[in-house]
Every structure is written in C-alpha cells, then in structure tokens.
C-alpha cells in the first residue's frame, strides 16, 4: 500500500515536472444496466486526493491529511457502485433538476402546470425518483492551468421526471494546489424550465465512520433563514437567526444547541435549514460556511455564488452501510448544500430558478480544505 502511494506521488510529481500538469487517473468502478461506470482520481501537490464517479457526477471520496499527516476520507459514501445505485441518501452526488423540495410536486410556467413524481410525503425531493444523482454523466478529463479537472455533462430529456425542456448540464470539478475543489455549474435549455443544482456531500472532518459531527465547529454568517412549514416547505418568510438555535454567526459546535424538542429542530429532528446570503454584486463568491474539527485540525470553507446555504445534519440517516464497513446513523455527516431556495418556482419572492432558451445558467461553489495546528 505504502509502495503504491510512493509510486503514485512520484508519477504525479514527474508529470507535473515534465508535462506541466497533474494527471487524472481513470479506473473502472463497476457496471450497471450494461454501462461501465468509471472513477476519476485527482490529486494536488499537497497530497489531497479527490475521487469522482461519472454515476451521478458524484464525489466518492476526499482524502485529506490531518495536522499529524494522517490521511482520512472526509465524506460519507459507499465503497461500491451498488451502494450508489440502490442507496437513497444522495452521498456526494450532484442533485437536479431540482435540489430540495417542490411543494405538492408541482409548479407553473407561463400558465402551464407541471406535475412531478411525488417521493417525499406529498412533495418532490431532489429531482424525483431518478434525479441527476441516478444518471450516467459523460466525463471528460481536462486541465485547468496545471490543475486536474473533470468535466461532467448530462443531457436531461424534455419531460424527464416531469420537468419541461431538454436541459444540458455541465459540472466541472477542478482540484487546485490551494486545496480547493472547485465546482463550476452550467446549464442550457431549449424551453423555459426550472433548475436547482447542488452537491450533496456529507462531511465528517474526523473521517467518515469516525463518530458524529456534533463537536465540529460551525460558522454560518447568515442573518436570516427561510421559515418552513411542517412538511419542510418554505412559507415565503425569512426570519432572523438572532435568538434562535440557527444562529451560527459566532462559531459553535454543531451539537451545542441541537435539541430536537426545539420548535425549529423538531420537524426535521435536527438542522435542515436554508440560510440566506445576499450580495452586492451578482455572482459574487461569498464564504457561506466554515467547519472545523479541533482534534484533527481539519477545516473546510464553503464559498459560493448561490443565494442559499442549506445545512442538513444527516438527521434521517439510520443504519446505512457505508464505506469499509462503516455504519452511518443520525449526525454522522453534515451537508452544506449551496443552491437556490426550496420551492422557489412556487415563490415568486425568492431568487428565480427559471431558465429560458438562449440563457446560460452558471454558478460556482468551492470546498476549500485547511489544516490548522
Ligand atoms: C434535505 C433533507 C433530506 C435529505 C435527504 C437534504 O438535502 O434537506 O430534508 O432528508 O436531503 O438526504
């Protein structure tokens, strides 16, 4: 194992030296429905390793050293393809067409009502039964400057899971030497439609399978959260975080106030909330969240151009068989989903999720890892 790692690091260093870029290594991950699924491994100069799958444009693992140099995989997931095909937890996958809930599984565009499959109580969650996380994406290895990059594209046909318009979506994943995993999203449609894209990685900075995330220190600088009803559908109001368990403007352990009898946490048995980020310039990158795990020294910053950071503490995980024999229960991972607000197509007061033919949807999210002493 050690010899393999040394050979790998040597190969990467040589290619950077001679060819000016870090390679992306492609390997077979499994097979489903007659299609071969590939994994793409990206490495940077600091030994950060990111593994992507073309199934669901999924981040399958992120290996990050701690302050003592010990490497751990900081996201939840499955070791094999079967987990991703059968599983219902959206581990590390790209979510679309619509991340979050669409109330009663319907919305209207230009007077026409579109009805979607219902997969969450009376609502549609994360694009329906077979959203983008269950699709095979077309992957192309690229280099951005000298950094390894994989561009994943999926063409979602008109009517898929009830959504109008053929939507061509691209997510380009780039790993930089500043320990940033950059996700650049782009989409085009041939008729008016709605979309909301995110990545659904569950982070555990101690390493997946190593206890819960309740002692991770979370900082979210937002002043407002989107109020939701008993089915977790936004009511349309934004409420101040001031004086509530959702106030993370001063960094605090995730578990410090996680009391499921609190009126704001009871419905989802924990955090499952959308925080508003306003900006003076459109498409400005803002720091939406900072997560820090004191024992390992690992820290993560989430930068985004999106208006909503949805924080979900894995409340509904229950005995999920994860990687290498890990079993994931509630609060064993935390999702920091950058996106537009749930149910926006039914909430004209929210930032719009509509895309018209001829327009380009574009957004950027960055996961930036740090190791603190
Ligand atoms: C949602 C949760 C949901 C989870 C499913 C999150 O994005 O906010 O309510 O249960 O995804 O994994």
Q: Could you walk me through the main structural features you see in this protein, from its secondary elements to its overall organization?
A:
By secondary structure, the chain is mainly β. It has one domain (about 1-370): Beta-galactosidase, Chain A, domain 5 (Distorted Sandwich). It is built from 2 helices and 30 strands. The chain has helices at about 1-20, 80-85; strands spanning about 25-30, 35-45, 50-55, 60-65, 70-75, 95, 100, 105-110, 110-115, 125, 140-145, 145-155, 165-175, 180-190, 195, 200, 200-205, 215-220, 225-230, 235-240, 250-255, 270-275, 285-295, 300-305, 310, 320, 325-330, 335-340, 355, 360-370. The strands form 8 sheets. Strands 11-12-13-14-30-24-23-18-21 form a 9-stranded antiparallel β-sheet, with no helix packed on it. The protein has a 6-stranded antiparallel β-sheet with strand order 17-28-25-22-19-20, with no helix packed on it. A hairpin with a 4-residue loop joins strand 13 (about 165-175) and strand 14. The longest helix is centred in the first third of the chain and has 18 residues, at about 1-20. The protein starts with a helix and ends with a strand. Beta-D-glucopyranose binds next to strand 25 and strand 28.
């Amino acid at each position: 194992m050690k010899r393999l790692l040394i050979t790998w690091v040597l190969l990467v260093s040589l290619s950077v030296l001679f060819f000016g870029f870090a390679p992306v290594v492609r390997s077979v991950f499994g097979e489903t429905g007659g299609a071969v699924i590939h994994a793409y491994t990206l490495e940077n100069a600091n030994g950060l390793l990111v593994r992507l799958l073309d199934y669901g444009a999924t981040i399958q693992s992120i290996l990050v050293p701690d302050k003592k140099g010990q490497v751990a995989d900081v996201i939840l997931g499955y070791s094999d393809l079967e987990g991703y095909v059968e599983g219902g937890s959206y581990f590390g996958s790209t979510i679309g067409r619509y991340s979050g809930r669409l109330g009663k599984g319907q919305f209207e565009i230009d007077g026409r009502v579109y009805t979607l499959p219902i997969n969450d109580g009376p609502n549609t969650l994360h694009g329906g039964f077979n959203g983008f996380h269950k699709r095979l994406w077309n992957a192309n290895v690229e280099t951005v400057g000298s950094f390894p990059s994989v561009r994943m594209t999926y063409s979602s046909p008109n009517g898929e899971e009830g959504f109008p318009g053929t939507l061509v979506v691209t997510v380009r994943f780039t790993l930089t030497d500043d320990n940033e995993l950059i996700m650049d999203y782009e989409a085009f449609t041939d008729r008016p439609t709605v979309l909301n894209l995110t990545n659904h990685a569950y982070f555990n900075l101690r390493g997946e399978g190593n206890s819960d995330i309740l002692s991770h220190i979370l900082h979210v600088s937002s002043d407002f959260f989107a109020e939701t009803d008993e089915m977790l559908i936004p009511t349309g109001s934004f409420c101040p975080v001031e004086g509530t368990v959702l106030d993370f403007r001063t960094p605090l352990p995730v578990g410090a106030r996680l009391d499921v009898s609190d009126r704001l946490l009871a419905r989802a048995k924990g955090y499952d909330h959308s925080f508003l980020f306003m900006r003076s310039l459109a498409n400005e990158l803002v720091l939406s969240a900072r997560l820090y795990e004191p024992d390992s020294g690992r820290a993560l910053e989430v930068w985004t151009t999106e208006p909503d950071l949805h924080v979900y503490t894995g409340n509904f995980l229950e005995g999920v068989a994860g990687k290498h024999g890990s079993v994931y229960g509630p609060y064993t991972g935390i999702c920091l989903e950058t996106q537009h607000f749930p149910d926006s197509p039914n909430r004209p007061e929210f930032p719009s999720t509509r895309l018209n033919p001829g327009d380009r949807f574009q957004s950027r999210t960055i996961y930036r890892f740090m190791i603190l002493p």
